[in-house]
Amino acid sequence: MEYILQTKGLTKQYGKHTVVNHVDMHIEKGDIYGFIGKNGAGKTTFMRMVTGFAAPLEGSMELFGSSELEKQRVRIGSLIEQPGLYGKMTAKENMEIIRRNLGITKKHAVDEILEFVKLSNTGKKKVKNFSMGMKQRLGIAIALFNNPDFLILDEPINGLDPAGIKEIRDLLLKLNHERQITILISSHILGELSKIASRYGIIKDGRLIEEFDAKDLESRCRRCLKLSVDDANHAAAILEEKCHISNYDVPEPGTLRLFDGLDRSWAINRQLIQNGIQLKESYLAGQDLEGYFMDLLEYGQFQQNGKLNSHGTYTAQGKGGKNA
To answer: Which of 31, 177, 285, 290 holds its CA 20 to 30 A away from the CA of 217?
Structure first.
């Protein structure tokens, strides 16, 4: 397993206020890592520490498997907060300034990057007259100038219209798939983030409360029939023998989640009761992605139908069950 970024106990304080609190983050090569948290949760400060614009109070960090951070940071491109653009200049003029500052001598470098982010046809149009989406793409173009292996983007789709969001989404997927660039991206638009992210980190009040991948997320939000019973093992045997259901799991003692047979819950309940199971509760459960994220941000743990449960730890599962 090759990590692009690993942090251990990374902490930052401003005065007596702890903004980032002992964060352990793990970003693997090839990830699009969705960094999720409310305003003030510590996302931007964390990103600034990774890029070297803020110094941590304590903790350690490795980039590309190395603790020589300054040497490795040349492999990072970043767009944190708003891009610094000259409004009275064109996109090409803005890029030319960056090219000279970086000492890039390749004559066609600017044209190639503008073509990649689909801004090559803007001609003499001044940046001040660009749409928000065009400005964000220009900011990403600047972040790409040093041909980075790791791209850090802070709220790149914030304030964009649906067309602008799609443009940025398509661009990031292209960077990840065609150039194999690993991406750390924060966003409040959780539905859009779920369309591109392969891994997630949830930060709340400066603490990274959990990391999980896209497959885990899909499983956790899966619709199911949730049963509360007196004897989960006996109930599981009945489900398999009498109801022919094997796609279930047991997330905690006395609880089963059934992923098949949701349209015949009444028959399942009757079969369990007739075979001596004390059925305490039976209800359909599951959330959409945004609802799941919001519960994590609000409570720091999984919530379904008003009940808080630990998630990701299962004591048993059916023949076709999958850990969530």
So the answer is: 177
Query: Tens of pLDDT along 159-216?
Result: 888 888 999 999 999 999 999 999 999 988 888 888 999 999 999 999 999 899 998 8
**HEC sequence for 52-95:** CCCCCCEEEEEECCECCHHHHHHHEEEECCCCCCCCCCEHHHHH
Q: Which residues pair with 15 in a beta bridge?
A: none
Question: Model-level pTM?
Answer: 0.77
What is the maximal distance between C-alpha atoms in the chain? 80
CATH 1.10.10 fits 221-317, yes or no: no
Q: Give the pair of three-digit tokens for residue 260.
A: 């098949």
Tell me the domain boundaries of the chain: 3-217, 221-317
C-alpha atoms less than 13 angstroms from C-alpha of 15 in its C-beta half-sphere = 1
Q: Which among 210, 145, 186, 164 is positioned nearest to 44, based on CA atoms?
A: 186
pLDDT tens, 125-167?
Answer: 999 999 989 999 999 999 998 899 999 999 998 888 888 899 9
Contact 8, 60 (CB under 8 A): yes
